[in-house]
Amino acid sequence: MSDFGQIFIIVVLFQNWIVIVSLPGFFTMIYYSISLYPDYVILLFIMKSVAKKNDAVSPVIGTILLVAITVVLVAIVAAVVMGMVGGVGQSKTVGVTVTPSSVNTSHTGFILTVTGGPDAGSLSNVTAYMEGVTFAESGVVKNMSVGVPTFVQATAGAPKSGTLTLTGTFNDGSKYVIYQNQFSIPATTTT
């Protein structure tokens, strides 16, 4: 540390602040003057060593620690949330084609063909909904085979256009949406 025998620079920062810095560095004295009387000035000393100390954590290590703590907190929150939700389940994949069909006024609906997919063999039945209303006359289409077209007749009160949703029920009892799209039944023809 430096002592008072060194050369000092005196800088007046504000009306009541005086900073004295030694030229070699490593020592700073900040004086705050309080004017009790116009002719006398009392100085309060605040000394601060500017010499580098290795007592604190470096900014790089501090940043690494903050990132590590954040990652750990995110992992804990994710584990808690996944525990509440029960995890993310697997979905089933089945390819289908849907073609509007209108044979006559009493036979309107669509032709459903299962085209394949890894879970096509475990598909036990399909339920059709148009805008939330059960679409199929029989309610459920059963015994679907890959590549075999099946006519699905519309119920009397089913909408003629809107979002068609096909929900597949599989052998394990699970239900998944296998098709959802805008759909319109064409005008009926007479035979």
UniProtKB/TrEMBL annotation:
Signal peptide: none annotated. Keywords: Membrane, Transmembrane, Transmembrane helix. InterPro entries: Flagellin/pilin_N_arc, Pilin_N_archaeal. This is Archaeal Type IV pilin N-terminal domain-containing protein. Residues 55-120 form the Archaeal Type IV pilin N-terminal domain. The chain crosses the membrane at residues 7-23, 59-85.
